[in-house]
């Protein structure tokens, strides 16, 4: 998974890069806030970011605010690195749009655990987005069967939106995940099928009589 | 443990780096390259009595040496950071002297690492 890291201290940046690479991340390193913003505002931005709080130019919280203000785009999970442990700062950091924070110098196991929380959240967000897309597609299909449907009073054909008259079963099977199989209901059997059979039988009987004579 | 605190706790650092000695030596080189400009910035801030710049510069040094588990240097940098945050720089020159001494010890320890690369 791609991850952006940003720190103006070269040593801290290299530590973070080394550790994250050991854990299998594909690391994009930024030397300051401005460089980090260049990566974060690109369309193919990584979905995880670990940003140092205090950087000259653009600091971590400012980057978070900008990322959230950008809206849309791919989901992104941001962890702020802070050397301070003051609760007021933590509230400000999370208020700026960060998802989590880790106190520097970080404990490896803790950072790794927090990153896996981030990955879990991103996966949930992705699954949810897929589900919404599926539902929207389903909804679009349902919509196609709404509205006024002109039907012939005699033959029961219906007129589609391109002004063609279609058999009702053809019209529906084009718009539904259902197919029609032809059969005869008991009422129609009595009304249409039985008289036909009777007719055939009497014709056959008449034929036998004719041959026998 | 004796009462004396090591300038850098290499065992702790290696633990954090998954035992990667190559990386540790590389970090020592980076630090030794960058430290002069970090300390120069701090000295300039203290020199012109700029509390906010002092806080920032001391914070940067603290963050950098923290990577080497350099407790004494971190404490000395924190004292200057706090002085800057409080806007009270009368103690800054003395705190700066202490920090210089602690940083010299860090430099010494890291020079050996960088040389052994």
Descriptive report:
The complex is a heterodimer of chains A (213) and B (117). Chain A has 213 residues and is of the alpha/beta class. Chain A has 7 helices and 7 strands, in the order βαβαβαβαβαββαα. Chain A has helices at 10-22, 33-40, 60-70, 87-95, 108-143, 168-175, 186-212; strands at residues 2-6, 26-30, 48-52, 77-82, 100-103, 158-159, 165-166. In chain A, helix 2 packs parallel to helix 3 (60-70). In chain A, 24% of the residues are buried. Chain B is mostly helical and 117 residues long. Chain B is built from 5 helices and no strands.
Give me some keywords for this one.
heterodimer; A: 213 residues; alpha/beta; five-stranded parallel beta sheet; two-stranded antiparallel sheet; 7 helices; B: mainly alpha; elongated
Categorize the overall geometry of chain A. Answer: rod-shaped
Order of helices and strands of chain B: HHHHH
Please report which band the strand proportion of chain B falls in: under 5%, 5-15%, 15-25%, 25-35%, 35-45% or over 45%. Answer: under 5%
Radius of gyration of chain A: 35 Å
> Main sheet of chain A: which strands, in order across?
2-1-3-4-5
Question: Biggest interface and which pair forms it?
Answer: A-B, 17 and 21 residues
């Amino acid at each position: 998974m791609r991850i952006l890291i940003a720190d103006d201290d070269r040593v801290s940046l290299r530590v973070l890069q080394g550790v994250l690479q050991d854990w299998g991340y594909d690391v994009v390193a930024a030397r300051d806030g401005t460089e980090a913003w260049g990566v974060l505002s690109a369309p193919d931005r990584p979905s995880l970011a670990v940003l140092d709080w205090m950087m000259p130019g653009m600091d971590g919280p400012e980057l978070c605010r900008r990322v959230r203000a950008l809206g849309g785009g791919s989901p992104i999970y941001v962890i702020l690195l802070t050397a301070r442990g003051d609760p007021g700062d933590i509230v400000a950091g999370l208020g700026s749009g960060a998802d989590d924070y880790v106190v520097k110098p970080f404990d490896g196991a803790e950072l790794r655990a927090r990153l896996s929380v981030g990955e879990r959240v991103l996966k949930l967000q992705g699954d949810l987005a897929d589900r919404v897309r599926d539902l929207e597609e389903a909804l679009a299909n349902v919509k196609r069967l709404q509205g006024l449907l002109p039907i012939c009073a005699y033959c029961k054909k219906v007129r589609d939106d391109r002004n063609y008259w279609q058999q009702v079963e053809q019209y529906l099977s084009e718009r539904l995940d259902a197919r029609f199989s032809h059969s005869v209901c008991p009422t129609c059997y009595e009304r249409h099928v039985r008289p036909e059979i009777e007719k055939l039988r009497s014709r056959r009987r008449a034929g036998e009589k004719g041959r026998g004579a | 443990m004796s009462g004396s605190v090591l300038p850098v706790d290499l065992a702790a650092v290696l633990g954090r780096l998954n035992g990667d000695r190559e990386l540790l030596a590389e970090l020592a080189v980076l630090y030794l390259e960058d430290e002069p400009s970090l300390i120069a910035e701090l000295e300039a801030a203290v020199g012109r009595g700029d509390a906010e710049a002092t806080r920032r510069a001391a914070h940067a040094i603290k963050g950098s040496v923290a990577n080497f588990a350099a407790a004494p240097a971190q404490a000395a940098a924190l004292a200057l950071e706090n002085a800057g945050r409080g806007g009270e720089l009368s103690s800054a020159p003395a705190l700066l002297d202490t920090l210089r001494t602690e940083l010299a010890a860090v430099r010494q320890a890291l020079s050996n690492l960088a040389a052994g690369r």
